[in-house]
Amino acid sequence: MKKIIFSLFVALSSVSAVQAADANAGKEKSATCSACHGPTGVSASPMFPNLAGQNDAYIIKQLKDFKSGARTDAMMAPMAANLSEADMADLAAHFSGLPSANEQAAASASTASSTDATPVSAPAAGNVDIVSSSPAAAIYPGDVAAGKSKAVACAACHGADGNSLIPMYPSLAGQSANYIAKQLADFKSGNRNDPVMAGMVAALTPEDIKDLASFFAVQSTKVGTGESNEAGHNLYYGGDAAKGVTACIACHGVTGKGMKQAGFPSITGQSKDYLKKQLASFRDGSRGNDNNGIMRNIAIKLSDADIEAVAQYITSLK
Ligand code: HEC
Ligand code: HEC
Ligand code: HEC
Known about the structure:
Order of helices and strands: HHHHHHHHHHHHHHHHH
Largest sheet: none
Mean pLDDT: 84
Shape: globular
CATH architecture of the largest domain: Orthogonal Bundle
Distance between the termini: 64 Å
Low-confidence stretches: 10-18, 112-139
Bound molecules: heme C
Number of domains: 3
CATH topology of the largest domain: Cytochrome Bc1 Complex, Chain D, domain 2
């Protein structure tokens, strides 16, 4: 009897915790989740579960279990690692409130003739709005031509077409507009620190940022010409289960092009020097602008030898 009363109490208190959650805040926090679970909580890939319409208490329990390691999954572990209890409750409130996959399918069947883009999840602060339901067809509202003339100021370091010739400076060509816009906003707010870039972004307006991001996003990335190596290849594709390192491929993709909608950047075409510097900066926390500590959580487990090998390997991605 005591046991029953106790579990009732637990059940009731978790229900009230859920009611205090903020679905709108959850929607904002879910930008990262949409790459795999879909912008409307319905996944486009059979590999990833739907979350739309799922019970909120169940979602919270799974996130806690991924965080504690009671449920293991190489992709979800780093997603859950830095979520607070409030984040989990907000995310659960958001996903549980979305119409289920079946309801969404029925609704889209009845409005099949409509050409309206389905709303996507709210982009995090600093992101460019994506005006399309499909990442491949994402249209960025920035003005590419205006971006081109504004990018003259960037050419000395990043190259006229966004392909940098100097290893210290990252290439921007073909990078997702969302990611570029986020980095510029982060340099501006000081969330990402770099003395050179801080000076460059100080005078940029939100409109400049959109235009520049759109211009660089439509330039062509140069393919990697570096040498491959086995240790780096293994880490990139398989991660390191013993150390708890998620495979880079989960977020940066098979050819390193990233996942635009989730804000996972393209890392193809970058120099080894730049890649090593970023991994080391995530590892020691001097770069801390990754949402939920996604990259810091991974980098902290990498040795110098791992960083050397994986950075070298990434330069071979085509
Ligand atoms: C890189 C892809 C990826 C991203 C991004 C991602 N997930 Fe997942 N998620 C998965 C996979 C894969 C599973 C299934 C794990 C398994 O097989 O046990 C999963 C499972 C889950 C589950 C359990 C679902 C169930 O039915 O048991 C929840 C809840 C969840 N994810 C929430 C989230 C939230 C919230 C975010 C964003 C903070 C997120 N995920 C981001 C890949 C991802
Ligand atoms: C004097 C050289 C210089 C100029 C000019 C310059 N940058 Fe940079 N930029 C850098 C350096 C150095 C970094 C890398 C900072 C670091 O190591 O974290 C960088 C990083 C970036 C990043 C982040 C890239 C990534 O992959 O994360 C973006 C976006 C960017 N710059 C955009 C611009 C834009 C837009 C302009 C023009 C308005 C510009 N930069 C002008 C030197 C420069
Ligand atoms: C769970 C998703 C995820 C995984 C797995 C992951 N990354 Fe990342 N990575 C990110 C995100 C998100 C960012 C951008 C953070 C930000 O907003 O600045 C990033 C940024 C980076 C950058 C900086 C890019 C730039 O242009 O400055 C490098 C380099 C990088 N990751 C390498 C790796 C390597 C190597 C691995 C595997 C050992 C890996 N990542 C695994 C999500 C991931």
